[in-house]
């Protein structure tokens, strides 16, 4: 019977220790359960103050990581001229050999106003 009492005393100690652990865990769970709403309220209230530094750090890390992965930049190659620049150069070269004072009259050029539109309501000369 003495051994039975020893076992029961040992079991009682183990069960009481387990009970204390479960109480600690349950109180920790209760504290965390009450802490989450407080944390979310604080995050919602101070979101602009929290978001900017986080975004700044993430952007800086990403920038430096990308620079590290790419390595040192190669020397810049000579930029090619755009199509418009090539066209302007070609036009200037064509005009370089011509006389700039020898131009056609605006009256002779039909690009601006067609004669048919202006003479539509005029009587036909016979």
Protein topology:
Layout: H1 2-45, H2 47-70, H3 83-96, H4 115-118
Main location: membrane
Organism: Synaphobranchus kaupii (Kaup's arrowtooth eel)
Biased composition (Basic and acidic residues): 8-30
For this entry, give a set of tags:
elongated; 68% helix; 4 helices; 0% strand; mainly alpha
Structure notes:
By secondary structure, the protein is mainly α. The chain has helices at 2-45, 47-70, 83-96, 115-118. The longest helix has 44 residues, at 2-45. The chain is elongated, with a radius of gyration of 45 Å. The N and C termini lie far apart (147 Å). It is found in: Membrane. It is a single-pass membrane protein.
Shape designation: elongated
Low-confidence stretches: none
Number of helices: 4
Average predicted confidence as pLDDT: 75
Distance between the termini: 147 Å
Helix/strand/pairing category: mainly alpha
**What are the secondary-structure elements, in order, as H or E?**
HHHH
Q: Let me know the number of strands.
A: 0
Region (Disordered): 1-30
Subcellular location: Membrane
Organism: Synaphobranchus kaupii
Protein name: Small integral membrane protein 12
